[in-house]
Write a structure and sequence with these properties.
Blueprint (H helix, E strand, L loop, with lengths): L6 E5 L5 E12 L4 E8 L2 E10 L5 E3 L2 H18 L2
Antiparallel strand pairs: 1-2, 2-3, 3-4, 4-5
Length: 82
């Protein structure tokens, strides 16, 4: 669940909880959804994207949404490295 902090706790399929850092969120008009991009603070190569609702619940993205999230993440990373 999203919170007001820059951290999020996600539970995997086996019930293990893991804390991630929220890199950024964005709205995508074409899908009408909100997305969050998170990173594992222990492994910066582990970056994931999820959609979320107004209650802060997160949901896996489908293949089409993955492409959207990846494109936005790449643009964000490029801007951050400038």
């Amino acid at each position: 669940m999203l919170s007001d902090t820059n951290k999020i706790i996600l539970t995997d399929d086996e019930g293990n909880e893991k804390e991630f850092e929220i890199l950024f969120t964005f709205d995508y008009e074409a899908t009408g959804k909100q997305y969050v991009v998170v990173q594992n603070p222990a492994n910066e190569d582990e970056v994931f994207g999820f959609s979320y609702n107004d209650e802060g619940e997160v949901f896996p993205v489908d293949e089409e949404e993955f492409e959207i999230v990846a494109e936005v993440f790449d643009a964000w990373r490029d801007e951050s490295n400038e």
